[in-house]
Write a structure and sequence with these properties.
- This protein is mostly helical.
- The protein contains nine helices and no strands.
- The longest helix is centred in the first third of the chain and has 24 residues.
- It starts with 7 loop residues before the first helix and ends with a helix.
Length: 190
Amino acid sequence: MPRAGLDPAAVVAAGAALADEVGFAQLTMGSLAARLGVRTPSLYKHVGGQDDLNRRIAALALGQAADAVERAVDGRTERDALAAAARAFRTFVVAHPGRYAATIGMEPNSSEDPLALAGERLLGAFAAVLRGYAIGEAEVGHALRMLRSLCHGFATLQAANGFQWSTDIDESFEWLVTFADRGLRAMGVR
């Protein structure tokens, strides 16, 4: 009989929170069971094992990141949309480094996999930003990869305390947004 109050969503949420605290690489079924006050075998009533837990955390993280970026860009265009999306993504990654780390390299099993659906939503939110720029269809994939690389790189470095020199981090981030905006504008007029 599953423990009262535990269900797959609660187990995944607790796993995501623990990953944020200790790091995704340190998350184990045993550490999660200890956090929840149950024996490890009890978790298997809710998730299929470590791989299933990791996949569910990744899908949760992508969905939460998509929610944040979608809300941020709603009603905005061009640089305003770009800046809002980048800030929302950065804020999410810095606040949730463990669960975000679960998304890196995690492959969906099918187009209906919750991981794929959440990833498509996040890409869609960034694609909406690009519609404000005059970028040709053939360039959109490249532009999405550029935005992901810039936002992912900055946010994960910040979350890992990778910026240890005196230049203000927020000023550097605004510089990055301006750089991306200028590049996207230049690509649109080619």
